[in-house]
Amino acid sequence: MTQSGLSSKVALSDFDIFSQFLEKACGIVLGKNKEYLVKSRLRKILNDNKIDTLAELVKTIERNPRDVLRGKVIDAMTTNETLWFRDNYPFEVFKNTILPELCKRYPNQRLRVWSAACSSGQEPYSISMATDEFERTSLGQLKAGLQIIATDLSNKVLAECRTGEYDSLALGRGLSDERLKRYFNELQGKRWEVKPEIKKRIEFKELNLQESYASLGKFDVVFCRNVLIYFSADFKRDILSRIHKTLKPGGYLFLGASEALNGLADLYEMVQCRPGIMYVSKGEDVFARSSTKSSTFGSSTASAKTSSTTSRSTAATSPTTRPSTSRSGVSSKTTSSTKSQPSTFKPKPKPTDR
Ligand SMILES: C[S@@+](CC[C@H](N)C(=O)[O-])C[C@H]1O[C@@H](n2cnc3c(N)ncnc32)[C@H](O)[C@@H]1O
């Protein structure tokens, strides 16, 4: 073997060792051609710690797993890209359709929302602002309030979340002037802080999505957006199955615009929003099959028409569509992936299942 052949083989195995470490630590799967990206993201850490190779870095971390080095490496390898009201429709559907529906379903219970992988806080704060906007137009409906649990793997981004302070660059990404004025206090140095009434709904917690979600309790709505793209198909399925367990029957799940269920049609019903898609957690005690027309959101008249309206469903092999009577951004079609039982689901309020 030539000298250059030998060194490229050594470099590849060095990269593989690091890839295995990263996947084990947080589920992130590195593509084969990501070596340059890894090296550029870790260059400063390697230099600061006088470490020459990725394999040596992994060894150093494994020798002392509690050292801050581990967290720094994982932080460097995660992508924290986020925006206010990202993609807009999840927050519109949440405010205009989901909240009115949940207030009817659980009139005296506090609603609970999970922002899983919340990055620097734009997602949970957007949820809290959308909740405030709902309350302003529907006085008294959200009687028992709403709690948002926002989690991320990274303590660094969670620290930013907790301050609730952002600079003009961050605020320029998706936040309207009207929302800036209404929901932020201006600080010195072109920085703004989220107002206490928006902050107080949110509890920030460190959570690696590989860990158990049992301590989080049950949720009415889960936002797990723009994080599954970094994981293997098996890990995605594992996360989505365990999120299903945290959702109350008939609870709602939002994924990122480029993410899909990859199977699990037995756990979630896909619902078309216009634009976008959300998922409704299947559970027999809330959704009772019905062939009668209902005006409640999520219910419908039966239609066995095969949908061609969704381009990115991998969950539904032959989805059926049904008209819905929702008054908001949710589409007049929902998509059920249960081919043999197309139909209609009628939400049955069950306020005691919390
Ligand atoms: C691209 S951001 C998405 C932020 C937000 N959900 C959104 O849609 O704008 C991805 C976030 O996932 C977090 N993350 C990556 N792997 C994770 C894991 N195994 N457990 C929890 N969070 C993780 C990263 O720290 C990062 O903040």
Features:
single chain; alpha/beta; Chemotaxis Receptor Methyltransferase Cher, domain 1; Rossmann fold; 2 domains; nine-stranded mixed sheet; three-stranded antiparallel sheet; 11 helices; 14 strands; about 20% strand; disordered N terminus; binds S-adenosylmethionine
What is the CATH top level name of the largest domain? Alpha Beta
Unreliable residue stretches: 1-11, 285-354
The helicity comes to 25-40%
**Which strand order does the major sheet show?**
6-2-1-7-8-10-9-13-12
Overall pLDDT confidence: 81
Q: CATH homologous superfamily name of the largest domain? A: Vaccinia Virus protein VP39
Unique bound compounds? S-adenosylmethionine
Q: Got a strand count?
A: 14
What's the architecture of the largest domain, going by CATH? 3-Layer(aba) Sandwich
Determine Rg (CA atoms, Å).
22 Å
The succession of helices and strands, N to C, reads HHHHHEHEHEHHEEHEEHEEEEEEE
Give the overall silhouette. globular
Taking the alpha carbons of the first and last residues, their distance comes to 65 Å
Looking at CATH, which topology of the largest domain would you report?
Answer: Rossmann fold
Provide the domain count: 2
Helix/strand class: alpha/beta
H/I helix tally: 11
Main sheet?
Answer: 9 strands, mixed
Percent of sequence in beta strands: 15-25%
